[in-house]
Model the fold of this input.
Amino acid sequence: MKRMLMVAAAAVSCFAQADTYPSAKPISIVVPFAAGGPTDRVARDLAEALRKPLGGATVVVDNAAGAGGSIGANKVAKAAPDGYTLLLHHIAMATMPTLVRNIPFKVDSDFEYLGMINDVPMTLIGKPSLPANNYKDLSTWIGANKGKINLGNAGVGSASHLCGLLFQNAIQVDMTTVPYKGTAPAMTDLIGGQIDLMCDQTTNTTSQIEGKKVHAYAVTTAKRLTTPALKDLPTLQESGLKGFEVTIWHGLYAPKGTPADIQAKLNAALKAALKDPEFIKKQEGLGAVVVTDKRVEPAEHKKFVAAEIAKWSPVIKAAGVYAD
Done:
């Protein structure tokens, strides 16, 4: 009898919490990367856009960087499932299970999936002195220089690293991978000619392409982009790499066990935020495309991540790279 009363009391407390959410305290969005980067900017834009649909709630960003994005993710996985600690993460949710050794949580079962946020296209770029003006010329140059090509990236597990792995796998050519501590030093060396190629997010490459500081060869999306500086670039698919598509997507998550009513409120708020004109404008400024398809639904979000895990796992295993 006593146990039944305790269970009933817990249920009443849960319903009461869901009914008053989010009035108790600020909502924290954990970003598993340092402040100032593309994912951090997405989180800060989203935090602002979520406040109105959440009834004026205070939404703050908490940066918890390290270990390929797993430290921040683990912080949320172990947090109280009350809707006040959320995770905003990118494609690493699909790569961490393979890339990070001894990962302390399970991506598929330690989180509640709340919905996708955006897709960030990527571009294949080269040093300015490269004797190739288009992808066809680049392909010829790569064939003639096998074993001599340096492919830069922003570090193991970064978006540029992952894109580079997939590109090498697609063209069946191994290159010397050069990891840097961030995009800025990698871009500096690309412009200076110390490395030959890089594949990175439009958030990091568009201004360099506009300034003609690098050669731009292709985009990694299924369709060409409409951004003025990139609209004339072909896709890698139309250039001959059938099925090649890479975008650095972002999604929102809560700890496993978060009450269903709170999950529903967060999903509804997310959908409203994704339609906010100011949020859309800010994302377009980053070169990102706000998600409008069925991936805004939690079940479809989770299904998409599962497909991405299946896509990236063999690529990472074949490369034999790990982020400790």
